[in-house]
Amino acid sequence: MPSNCRFVRIAPPLPFRETGFSRLPSYPRHRADFVAVGYSRESNRAGYDFDNRGRGHGCLFQYGFAGEGRFQTLPGGRPVTLSPGLGFLAPFPSDTRYWLPPGGDWEFIYVILDGDLAYDLVGQLVQEHGHLWQLPPVHPAIVLLRDFHSAVCAGQPPDEFTAASLAHRFLLELFRAHAAPRPEIPPPLERARRLLEERYADHTLEIDDLAAAAHYSRFHFSRLFRHTFGKSPHVYLRQLRLRRALELLTGGTQPVKQIAAAVGYGSAAQFCREFHRHLGQTPLRVRRLGPRLRLDLQQVLTE
Questions:
Q1: pLDDT in tens, 13-27
Q2: pTM of the full predicted structure?
Q3: Which of 50, 134, 211, 224 has its Cβ near the most Cβ atoms within 10 Å?
Q4: Domains (range + CATH), the chain
């Protein structure tokens, strides 16, 4: 690996799918479908170089969790380094290329969509916002992809109707990412939001800490935060914590007590109360039912 490429993973890994696409059932009348999903780590592999001008039908979204790849618009566009947290969106065929530099390492999740509505929406997204997408790993679009992949790997793929619904929701989450342009978010509130996403697992984090980061009083900060993001800082923090808890419950075997601590709760009892109050399920029941239920509960956390 080149010395200037730091392999720092920004989220826990998912099961790798190195052998090919996880093809899903599709229904011809759907106008937006997930047809493939996977999670891969490419390392020092010659030939990982895709010129999308000659590829067949589909729309690809690929998002890096570690390492780095490259992306370029053709002909002659300047290559862009795809570092962790940066993804790209590209219909096929299109004047784009992506690849792994020699000696490089790249860990990412990808999904392919199809259908005329998917093409229309992807075309609009690219036209309005470009091919590149800088998103935190806790963004609802990325969480949806992780949950979707986990369900497929667990042998619980959604039926074709649910898959189409999720595909549409995923694209709408990308639109939502630009619904409030970042320049319109006051820098003090953006600092507070970043602090929330970076320290949500810290059980000592308080609203007063966020207000201090924004240099506002607690009352003024809470009012402005709700106005800007559509929810209170307390709700925003709770949703981050419960979303991460859902991932840990259905993607591993950690005891509930450890999960509670890992997502920022001071005790397992407090975690279980919050979990049941806002999701209507106990943590252990969610673990038993697995990733398919998680897809439904994640929707609750976006409302």
A1: 666 553 334 455 555
A2: 0.60
A3: 211
A4: 33-177 (2.60.120.280), 183-300 (1.10.10.60)
